């Protein structure tokens, strides 16, 4: 692990250029040093991997964005659970995490890959587990939850220290059981990014205005 910490701090961080330009849109990566590869981009951070570091990823918070301390604390509380990653090392502004393979539910819907009910039940159980530890699962949308080998996983736990219950996962479950399961699950079809992004932005607009 010490060798990878040196590689991150001497090669990745000095050569990385990215910004969180809008709070509700993914961060924009301007430069990522080779051979590091972008795994995913959230609103406040990016996740990258190295071809010689299988099984691990590095999550780096964007300059000026908070949340690193909270995420470290959440992983400390979660401990070991099959639906969550694990933090192996943390030093601001990055965390070294266990890599979770598979596809986000967003990618499944976009690619027309069937999402079995078992995935939804796994994520719900993972939320219950977090609540029993005093955490509050939040920001669980289609890009933050995953299907891996037919089982549900939670990718982003950075907001789990909040004190206000979030309806996002409940809304997603309703959409799954009322729309996806009866209409699309038997014969899922690919959905274009333009349609999915339109749904995402419309949903966020409705959430902001309803609150």
UniProtKB/TrEMBL annotation:
It comes from the Bacteria. InterPro entries: Kinase-like_dom_sf, Meiotic_Drive_Suppr_Kinase. The keyword Chloroplast does not apply. SUPFAM superfamilies: Protein kinase-like (PK-like). One of its GO terms (molecular function) is protein serine/threonine kinase activity. Keywords: Kinase, Serine/threonine-protein kinase, Transferase. This is Serine/threonine protein kinase. It comes from Paenibacillus chitinolyticus.
């Amino acid at each position: 692990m010490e060798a990878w910490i040196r590689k991150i701090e001497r090669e990745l961080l000095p050569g990385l250029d990215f910004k969180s330009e809008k709070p509700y849109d993914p961060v924009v990566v301007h430069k990522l040093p080779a051979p590091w590869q972008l795994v995913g981009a959230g609103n406040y951070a990016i996740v990258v991997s190295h071809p010689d570091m299988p099984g691990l990823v590095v999550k780096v918070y964007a300059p000026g964005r908070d949340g690193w301390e909270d995420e470290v604390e959440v992983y400390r509380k979660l401990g070991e659970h099959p639906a969550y990653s694990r933090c192996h090392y943390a030093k601001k502004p990055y965390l070294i995490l266990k890599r979770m393979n598979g596809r986000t539910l967003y990618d499944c819907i976009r690619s027309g890959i069937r999402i079995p009910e078992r995935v939804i039940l796994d994520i719900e159980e993972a939320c219950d587990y977090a609540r029993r530890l005093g955490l509050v699962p939040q920001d669980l949308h289609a890009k933050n939850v995953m299907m891996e080998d037919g089982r549900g996983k939670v990718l982003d736990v950075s907001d789990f220290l909040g004190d206000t219950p979030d309806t996002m996962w409940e809304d997603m479950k309703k959409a799954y059981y009322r729309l996806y399961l009866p209409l699309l699950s038997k014969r899922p079809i690919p959905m274009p990014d333009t349609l999915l992004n339109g749904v995402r932005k419309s949903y966020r607009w409705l959430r902001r205005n309803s609150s």
